[in-house]
Amino acid sequence: MVTELMDTVEAVKVQDSESGVFIDQSYIEGLLEKAKYTDDRVIQGILDKAERFEGLNHIEIASLLTTKNPAHIAQIFSIAGMIKRHIYGNRIVLFAPLYVSDYCVNRCGYCSYNCGHEFNRKKLTMDEVREEVKLLEQMGHKRIALEAGEHDQECPIDYILECMHTIYDMKFENGEIRRINVNIAATTVENYKKLNDVGIGTYILFQETYHQPTYDKVHHSGPKKDYAYHLTAFDRAHLGGIDDVGGGVLFGLADPYFEVLGLMIHNEHLEEKFNVGFHTISVPRICPAAGAETADFPHLVDDATFERIVAIIRLAVPFTGMILSTRENHAMRGKLLQLGISQISAGSSTEVGGYAKRERQEQSNPQFFVNDERTALEIITELMDDGYIPSFCTACYRSGRTGDRFMSLAKSGQIKNVCLPNALMTLSEFSSDYGDEPFKKKAAAAIARELPGIANEKIRLKATANLERISQGKRDFYF
Ligand code: SF4
Ligand code: SF4
Question: From the alpha carbon of 102, which atom of ligand 1 is closest?
């Protein structure tokens, strides 16, 4: 039955060869319509397939998105939890955003940085970048997402490159940023080459919505209004040498089921063309922001639907990391961590110069309001109390394990042989450098509990020796 459905819908999938657009709106709508008629026996087969970590095809994903059978919905959640535990264990990778410029020439209806919103715009000087980075390093962060609006004059590519150099050069006590992921506007192959040369981690870009009529409606003006140029940004990034890219949509702009299928088709497009799909998928949901038009969106996603979407993405692409930001509150983060999220931000400020402002207790003007206001240390402590291992690992990018090299290791199941020891070593560093006495005790207990779980004896012994060296003040060990 599933194959029959596939055959019918595959026949109408088209790609516009001139614009490069590979998202066929009517194909996705057709999938969602046909999926409503997938019978329960077939859905059970889809769930069995997901349980074998085989991922899912389009019609299978659409069928899980549209099923109303409570028993199947319960199974979706339990399989997502099982996949999460099996592939990612109890490790959660931590990062923080660093906003460097809020100048923007675009008018995106959902964003407070849109050029129609009047406020005092700012771009960090290099001294201010250092000040922010020092505060991030004092929180223990090793991995950041560098964020900027689009503005060729105020924030050209050379400014972004200068920020990256400044950040990588900056060391404060034992602190250092070891991986800079970059989230800037879609750009040219030449600019992607420059980002690659400076040592970008992941290039992150959200499509916001794959539904073109909605895309056209919410992007009022500016270069980002060009759906095709935005959609094909990762193709250009690959041509510029960046083989590590992270996608996402802003849930709430269009039908969320449509968006999930859009994400999956984008992922496959990259796999087919470049042999590697998304390294990560981010799942932000629309939330209020000053100067944004959030009241106008008819597709805001409720909690139950959002949980189900996260779980289905986990089933569909079991080896792709999933990122959640501080847009979600504490309780929702807790639930989603069990269903598939593998990376979260902690102690975030979503404002240019926001970390220094927070330090000075000045009023803020964020891109969006965060719903998890806890400090990084509070979040990290609570992760440990809930049985998770906070990880500050940046090893893959620094060992050249990116793109298809990373994906083949992930799919073979071997990646966890390095993720766990790296998590324990970076937690030990964090604990020594930033933990108070109660935290140090918790971290030591967690490390002692988890260490025997490193299956490879050679790696376990080496990790044990490295942990000893960390306790003596040495830093930066990784596999
Ligand atoms: Fe500018 Fe990005 Fe905000 Fe759009 S989403 S207005 S491009 S900062
Ligand atoms: Fe991520 Fe690689 Fe570190 Fe695992 S070893 S946590 S995949 S960077």
Answer: 8
- For the record, the structure tokens of 401 come out as 């394990």
φ/ψ of residue 56, rounded to 5: -135, 150
Measured by CA distance, the residue closest to atom 8 of ligand 1 is: 149
pTM of the predicted model over 0.85: yes
- Decide if 478 is inside a domain: no
What is the domain count for the chain? 3
CA-nearest of 286, 291, 288 to 119 is: 291
Residues 74 and 109 in one domain: no
Atom of ligand 1 nearest to the CA of 224: 7
Q: How far is the CA of 426 from the centre of ligand 2 (A)?
A: 11
Q: Are residues 71 and 119 in the same domain?
A: no
In CATH, what number is assigned to the domain containing residue 155?
3.20.20.70
- Judged on CB neighbours under 10 Å (0-12, 13-18, 19+), 295 is exposed
Cβ < 6 Å from ligand 2: which residues?
93, 391, 393-396, 415, 418-419, 422
Is 177 exposed, middle or buried (CB count within 10 Å of its CB: 0-12, 13-18, 19+)?
A: buried
User: pLDDT tens, 95-129?
Assistant: 999 999 999 999 999 999 999 999 999 999 999 99
Q: Which structural domain range is residue 140 located in? A: 88-373
Q: Which ligand is nearest to the CA of 89?
A: 2
Residue where one domain finishes, among candidates 56, 86, 116: 86
Q: CA separation (Å) from 338 to 86, 205, 290, 387?
A: 12, 25, 32, 11
